[in-house]
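Incident review: delayed structure delivery

Summary: a single-chain prediction request sat in the queue longer than the usual turnaround. Root cause was a stuck worker, restarted by the on-call engineer. No data loss occurred. The affected request and its eventual output are reproduced below so the record is complete for anyone auditing the incident later.

Affected input:
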Amino acid sequence: MPQAIYGILPNAGQKQELNMTIKDSSLLAFEEAKKNLEPDQRAVLEIIEELGPVCDKRILEALQQKELKKPKKDRRKRKWSINKVTPRRGELVEMKFVRDLGMYRGRFKDEKTTCHLWRARGDEREPAGWEKMPDEGRTIDRGPKAAAERRNKAQQVKEEAGQKVLAKMNAREKASNAGRALVEYRKHKTRKLTSPTKQSTFAFG
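Output delivered after worker restart:
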């Protein structure tokens, strides 16, 4: 390393040694970072590392199967669900532990499906039995951030729908009031007004 600083280029053997040192250091840092993962994050990562390129539904299935093999006393209090898998996988993508391979078309449980496939860092296995889809115009689920954006959008759509319903109700109420007023007006117009009763005057003398 000092030779490179003073302008003397290292030979091939030194380059190889230097690359191995950097690679080993990166690997050690990577393994150290894995120790700081939350239990759920670690569980999801272990499944992805074990299975290779995999979709969220398969991750969920593997986690559930793994949980059932444990003694009842050691099982999770809260069962795994897709809403618990996707945020953890998304966090692993953000932390560079997992890579998004893009959209693929294939079969899951004998049903045709199109979904993102995920692969652990350093894993070079290719998806088997899946067809790569073009990524143009497709959004990528990035976990918690994407989930929050979807919730905000859903809330916005819900509010807009509520405003439309309220506007329709107000319009119907106005139309109903106008209709009642018109009926009352017509009744009043056609009603026969009775003339005042003439009272007889009696003179007493």
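Verification: The chain is about 55% helix and 10% strand.
Action items: add queue-age alerting; document worker restart procedure.
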